[in-house]
Design goal:
Structural class: mainly alpha
Helix content: over 70%
Strand order of the largest sheet: 1-2
Number of strands: 4
Number of helices: 20
């Protein structure tokens, strides 16, 4: 296949990232195994170099002309929507690196390969965002998933991490098999793989009740189940609490933020653009999973005592709200989904920044908190950290006038306008119920008393700065919502 300048242009950021990853891998192997250098640990250097590479990749995307461009024999598409999704991914990855560095230093995660693997996973996500063919989509998803299995079990000395990686691998392989089965059905019935070819073929196909349309609908159902598994939406969420709990905390943060961005962007293009004629089928699946996700996520969080399992169930509940927006299918709901995703990123980054920063000092060692009860009397030991966590929890609960309130409003209003009154009322009631487990955490921080207060390990300067920025965005951005509204509206219009 002849490679043109347009092929290189569409993947310039990814090619640059892969070249840098290759050089980082060579640098790490040669220096970490050098006897003359004293076998140095390069995890800190490699992490900062990955951060630098991500920044340059962002600059490449910002200064690239955005127009509709099919490349690599129409396997990929490059346009304004995919470019903006890639910017969100890379920016989130940069913040994740800054979040992860203190944890890696304190927990002595000294393997430089971890950062290279995480960066490779991000490259796979960038390819998913541009996928315009069944083949490219499947290969990019599997490339990403393969790295996720390694990251989940990266802490080899921990039996919990090994168990998490094994569970994720077994269930992930099952999900990949379902995806491949669904794609095989589509290809067998149509002989096509390109998304735009499908959109042309399916126009008006469903006006005829035929065996072909039912078979295609069955294939789409199988594909949607696989996608919902990747999103950890109920009832396909059984892997998420166990994997989140067993994996290293920074890996949990990575899983809870990064894959959801790519899968949701793929969902938007896959369901609402290329295969819009099958929207009636997608809608029923989305709304059913929205009901179940909000229900399971809300009541599941009540039963949790560990932080990471609590975050897993809270994330499932948020996915339910996102599925409501996807199930509506209107332009306003697409805008609401994109706005919700960006606010969700701020939530998760803020919660994990606080979770990683909260380390109890038991001289001469210090350890990260694992249980919700470890927040006891946090207001007396570090009142600013307690206040920051309170604002994030209130925002996640949807308390006005914080950002979480507007994100849920922009999801629920289009659903009400579409006549989904029962689902909207159910979502509001579940949001009210979810306030109770957020209030439980606030009670532990402010009102529970202990005889011996825990000594909190100092927080790094740059972690404090980033945390203050996230708190500011979550708290005061409602004064000028246009900062995110304009970006979300632009994405919704160009999808």
């Amino acid at each position: 296949m002849f490679i043109s300048i347009y092929d290189i242009f569409s993947l310039f950021a990814e090619i640059y990232a892969l070249l840098c990853i290759t050089m980082l891998l060579i640098y790490g192997v040669l220096h970490s195994t050098s006897f003359y250098l004293g076998y140095p640990t390069l995890h800190y250097n490699v992490a900062l170099l990955c951060f630098q590479t991500s920044i340059f990749s962002i600059l490449i995307l910002l200064y690239s002309s955005t127009f509709i461009l099919f490349s690599w024999n129409q396997l990929l598409i490059f346009n304004s929507f995919t470019s903006d999704i890639k910017l969100i991914l890379l920016f989130s990855f940069c913040l994740w690196i800054l979040l992860s560095l203190p944890y890696a230093i304190n927990e002595k995660l000294i393997s430089f390969e971890y950062w290279i693997l995480a960066f490779l996973a991000v490259v796979g996500m960038l390819l998913i965002a541009q996928a315009c063919d069944l083949l490219s989509m499947y290969l990019a998803i599997e490339f990403q998933s393969l790295i996720f299995y390694i990251l989940a079990s990266f802490k080899r000395t921990s039996e919990f991490s090994t168990e998490a990686g094994l569970k994720y691998f077994i269930l992930g392989v099952f999900s990949s098999a379902l995806l491949l089965f669904g794609l095989s059905i589509l290809y067998t019935l149509t002989g096509l793989t390109n998304f735009y070819d499908y959109s042309k073929l399916f126009t008006g196909l469903l006006s005829f009740s035929s065996a072909l349309s039912y078979a295609i609908a069955f294939g789409f159902t199988i594909i949607s189940i696989s996608f919902l598994f990747k999103l950890s939406a109920a009832p396909f969420h059984i892997w998420s609490p166990d994997v989140y709990d067993g994996a290293p905390t920074i890996t949990t943060a990575f899983f809870s933020i990064m894959p959801k961005i790519t899968i949701l962007s793929l969902f938007l293009r896959f369901c609402l653009v290329y295969f819009h004629d099958f929207f009636y089928l997608w809608q029923n699946i989305f709304l059913f999973c929205a009901y179940i996700s909000i229900l399971f996520g809300t009541f599941g969080a009540f039963q949790q005592k560990k932080w990471k399992r609590f975050i897993a169930y809270s994330s499932i509940s948020h996915i339910g709200f996102i599925l409501i927006g996807l199930g509506t299918g209107e332009l306003e709901s697409i805008f609401g989904v994109l706005f919700y995703v960006m606010i969700y990123i701020i939530f998760m980054l803020g919660i994990f920044f606080i979770l990683i920063s909260l380390r109890h000092l038991n001289f001469p060692n210090h350890q990260q908190i694992r249980y919700l009860k470890d927040l006891v009397s946090l207001y007396e030991t570090n009142y600013m950290l307690a206040l920051s966590l309170t604002l994030f929890l209130f925002s996640m609960a949807g308390i006005p006038p914080l950002l979480g309130f507007f994100s849920k409003i922009f999801i629920l209003l289009p659903s009400i306008q579409s006549g989904m009154y029962s689902l909207s009322i159910f979502a509001v009631l579940m949001s009210c119920i979810s306030c109770f487990y957020y209030i439980r955490l606030i009670k532990i921080m402010y009102f529970d008393k202990v005889h011996n207060l825990a000594v909190v390990y100092p927080i790094s300067t740059y972690s404090s700065l980033i945390l203050s920025l996230l708190v500011f965005l979550s708290t005061f951005l409602f004064f000028d919502l246009e900062l995110i509204l304009l970006f979300s509206a632009r994405l919704a219009l160009i999808i």
